[in-house]
Amino acid sequence: MSSEASMLEKFDEKIRKEIKIEPRDWMPDKYRKTLIRQISQHAHSEIVGMLPEGVWITRAPSMRRKVALLAKVQDEAGHGLYLYSAAETLGTTRGEMIDDLHTGKAKYSSIFNYPAITWADIGAIGWLVDGAAIMNQVMLCRTSYGPYARAMVRICKEESFHQRQGYEIMLTLAKGSEEQKAMAQDALNRWWWPSLMMFGPPDAESKHTAQSMAWKIKRKTNDELRQQFVNATVPQAKLIDLTIPDPDLVWNEERNSYDFGEIDWEEFWNVVKGNGPCNKERLEARQNAAKNGEWVRDAAIAFAEKQSQRKSNKEQVA
Amino acid sequence: MSEKKDWPLWEIFIRSRAGLNHKHVGSLHAADEDMAIENARDVYTRRNEGISIWVVESKHIKASNPEDEDSLFEPADNKIYRHPTFYNLPDEIKHM
CA quadruple A139, A142, A143, A148: dihedral positive or negative? Predict the structure, then answer.
């Protein structure tokens, strides 16, 4: 039979020619593992990401805001499901992935370990957190693994409303009373730096970037995406007269980009390691949801089995 | 993880509008076929993506092996006489 070397050659050629890798195609074990790690982490982020916003659904200031937030959180559940399904095509199971989340073995985006303490945070999350996520996801529409790329195309189509609804909230608050404007500025102050951290460690320190770029899982590096986000977001802040909390932020004519200040990576790693303001609360919420819903899942299976038993009994009699 | 089984996996096919084929859009877990349709509605048609849903339990799908790609599909490559452009027509015939 064809040796591993020739399989690898065929795989590399597909990557080179921009031919998508599909579930039943041969792939290096490490490519498979990298994808399972990345896609499941992405799925967990969608699901955990529902938590900070979910608590504001009942407290949204108007019906218009409430239906929008509800739809956004519902989308996030959907996006989590698209991604779990994409990961399952690689041979892992939903149960394994959920277990890894609940035991802390799998990570999710650290941004969701920060609390949403005012209504303006819902604006900042949509504008900045979804804005940063979209930068990453637009790039992933061209990722080399077919099911992941297809899930991303679907997600990107749905996600653009998320950022708009967030920006609209910020715009409305920024144009409002002094207190409302201060609330918007405060939210920007708290969410700006964690949003920049969302793109991950600097390229020089990112242990996965080089291989993921070679396999075309990632198409842009962490630093490239971060710069792209800063360039896109700074003018949006100016337009609504809010100040980015970075004294070193300055336009660099030569680079045709904004220079920005040093990110506090110590804070980033501290939150990744579990010491952020809400790590414990988020994980507990997921663990409890799984535990408290177990009897419902078991009952649904028991019901389905009973129904199918009845159906086959009837067929036998007939 | 629960002692009991995970819900089975279903493949979802959506007809986006009348006149078009059902097309595979992804998969999801559900306890039975009715729940699979309900979940598919929530997961895959939140923005008018469809007017009809098919669900098939994933284990019932038999897929061709990617390694057989050449033996299955290559023979069609060299049968150019299956295409209309293979045949010579006088210039006077514009459409046929």
Answer: positive
**C-alpha radius of gyration, chain A, whole number:** 22
- Angle of helix A29-48 relative to helix A94-102, nearest 10 degrees? 70
Q: How far apart are CA A144 and CA A139, in angstroms?
A: 11
Give the separation between CA A316 and CA A303, rounded to whole angstroms. Answer: 20
For residue A152, is pLDDT > 70? yes
Which whole-number Å values give the CA distances from A153 to A39, A142, A308, in the listed order? 14, 9, 37
pTM, to two decimals: 0.92
Token pair belonging to A77: 């559940």
HSE of A180, CA atoms in CB hemisphere, 13 A: 13
| Chain B residues touching A297 at Cβ < 8 A | 2, 4, 7, 31
**How does pLDDT run across A279-305, given as a tens digit for each residue?**
999 999 999 999 999 999 999 999 999
Contact B15, B22 (CB under 8 A): yes
ipTM confidence: 0.87
User: Which amino acid appears at position B92 of this protein?
Assistant: E
Under an 8 Å CB criterion, which residues of A touch B? 2, 22, 24-26, 71, 74-75, 78, 81-82, 85-86, 88, 93-96, 98-99, 150-151, 154, 158, 294, 297-298, 300-301, 303-304, 307-308
